[in-house]
Amino acid sequence: MSGVRSAATLRMDARRNVDRIRVAAVEVFRDQGLAVPLEEVAAVANVSKATIFNRFGGRTGLIDAVIDDVVAAELRAIIDDTRSVPGVRERIRHYVRAIRDLQYRLPAVNDVLLQEFPDSEALMALCHVAGAIHDDLVAEGHAAGVLARGFTAGDLHALTLDNALALKHGDRPSRTDYERRTAFVLAGVCPEAPPA
Amino acid sequence: MSGVRSAATLRMDARRNVDRIRVAAVEVFRDQGLAVPLEEVAAVANVSKATIFNRFGGRTGLIDAVIDDVVAAELRAIIDDTRSVPGVRERIRHYVRAIRDLQYRLPAVNDVLLQEFPDSEALMALCHVAGAIHDDLVAEGHAAGVLARGFTAGDLHALTLDNALALKHGDRPSRTDYERRTAFVLAGVCPEAPPA
DNA sequence: GGACAAGTTGACTCACCGAGTCAACTTCCT
DNA sequence: AGGAAGTTGACTCGGTGAGTCAACTTGTCC
């Protein structure tokens, strides 16, 4: 809402800077999460921090502008993939593995899930979409009798939130350790089918 | 190492303040964790922050002075209790339930487990003791075949650390939700005996 | 090819937060 | 009473990153 004008009327150097900043933001946000100092983004874009404010009006505007390239696409892909997995049990197991994998690979999703930037509408929307699938999976899971007794959508939510917090604030485990632990989580919540 | 002199030579008002501060510190640390601003402790003790520095030389000294009453006793109690539970499976299950319960009740243990104050020797010692039991339990568990295949002492450690981070940085769940989730964790790691 | 608006930027202020310090004051004790 | 021991309010300090702005640079259009 400050010096942000439409792309049509932007001078060439300004348009170039907008592009640079977007590219830099996607890269830096993906690597370091959405809370990274804007100075870092500016440095990678070869631009001064003030230019980010001129063009995007601050962190929230920048997040809205790039969130799709940073995480939304991948998050939606997971949800779509999941919905297309046949078999309730495997669908749930697939989702848990996929979301945990994404959380490990992309710290930025954790910022989304934790709602660290509630000012960004784009981000909150994402969050809501992510929440919806939990309800569906848990309902299906119980209907099919493949989920642990008493397991709620809130529990599934908490599972991802706790994991987000662990990854955000703790030491990141090796991929091997992490995947092994994913398996234990699954075993407690939606165990593999017993061998027929 | 500054104005801290032995209890014997302390003037009466000073001795009274030392006591007040200890009492306040135990209460405040238990409620709010070891990272609480020293001003809070001072306020509860009806004393100025400077007095804490005079008497204990800062947070580290204060922690060392009260850690036992804050958490060490309870932590050791859990370990002793655990060691006396007969049956490997129930021993492990008891430990996991007990430590998670303690983490919920006493935020301060989480600061200990997370090693937030590595300057305090008392605290680091505790941490080591807590680590030791993990190795033992996991070894026993595998020998008895009651643990999930591939589960390591590091995994048990990670379980408590991740939980510590979740409680420290996230919203604290209701006790009911928390305990239900404890059960899912156990189910994935050291399931109940199948009905004989 | 120059004038002026658009754009950029370095250097700034600001806010936050709690640790730790110290000179001046108060209390205890003999 | 007097002087050491003790207390304290008000201070500095450090680190961090958002957001601002006056002065400068560059693009654009005639």
Automatic annotation (TrEMBL), chains A, B:
InterPro entries: Homeodomain-like_sf (IPR009057), HTH-type_TetR-like_transc_reg (IPR050109), HTH_TetR (IPR001647). The keyword DNA-binding applies. Residues 37-56 bind DNA. Residues 15-74 form the HTH tetR-type domain. It holds the Pfam family TetR_N. It comes from the Bacteria. One of its GO terms (molecular function) is DNA-binding transcription factor activity. Keywords: DNA-binding, Transcription, Transcription regulation. The keyword Transcription regulation applies. This is AcrR family transcriptional regulator. It comes from Nocardioides albus.
